[in-house]
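hey
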């Protein structure tokens, strides 16, 4: 899967599927014929025969183990509200995911983090890099850094996806996938286009074991 196209329908678990990128991925991947499972802490309605639903918490090893069993791919799109308090959601949840994937023999993980994680620091523009991130998002991105480290240290086939500034715009299929960040400042990208990129990578993989930045 890291180099060969995979035309077969996949069993894909989307963590954080109630809204945003996760909800967009459920819709687009289901429409493409994949067998989707949406996982969310809060209940929501699903309207497709290709989509199953599990309610649970990524911080619960039991909930995660039950959801991961039988999947081909796990996609992490979990987010949280702005806080200045210490954050452990991303690292704690990812530890549970990695353990469950090892337990059930699931090998492929895609995790959406964001601009400000890892080497994307300093590539968001002055206001974001020097005001918004350090004042309002610092503890979130400290934990996303811990999350990314856990994924990189795992023995899985992994990809870390770092979108720019998210919008509710349409799926265009036209965006930049940036690996070399020298001289790059992130712009906007729609949640639908982030889902489009993930779906493309699941069927025609090109960026596994990398952490691309997505932006228009």
């Amino acid at each position: 899967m890291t180099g060969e196209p995979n035309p077969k329908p996949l069993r894909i678990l989307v963590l954080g599927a109630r809204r945003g990128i996760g909800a967009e991925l459920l819709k687009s991947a289901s429409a493409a014929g994949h067998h989707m499972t949406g996982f969310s802490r809060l209940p929501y309605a699903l309207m497709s025969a290709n989509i199953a639903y599990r309610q649970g918490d990524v911080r619960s090893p039991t909930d995660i183990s039950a959801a991961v069993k039988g999947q081909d791919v796990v996609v992490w799109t979990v987010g949280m509200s702005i806080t200045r308090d210490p954050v452990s959601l991303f690292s704690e949840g990812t530890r549970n995911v990695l353990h469950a994937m090892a337990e059930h023999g699931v090998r492929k993980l895609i995790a959406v983090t964001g601009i400000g994680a890892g080497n994307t620091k300093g590539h968001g523009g002055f206001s974001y890099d020097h005001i918004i991130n350090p004042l309002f998002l610092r503890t979130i991105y400290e934990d996303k850094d811990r999350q990314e480290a856990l994924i990189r240290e795992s023995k899985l086939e992994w990809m870390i996806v770092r979108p720019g500034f998210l919008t509710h715009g349409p799926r265009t299929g036209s965006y930049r996938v940036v690996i070399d960040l020298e001289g790059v400042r992130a712009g906007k990208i729609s949640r639908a286009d982030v889902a489009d990129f993930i779906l493309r990578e699941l069927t025609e993989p090109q960026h596994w074991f990398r952490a691309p930045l997505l932006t228009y």
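Residues 11-215 form a domain with the Rossmann fold fold (CATH 3.40.50.720). The first strand starts at residue 11 and ends at 15.
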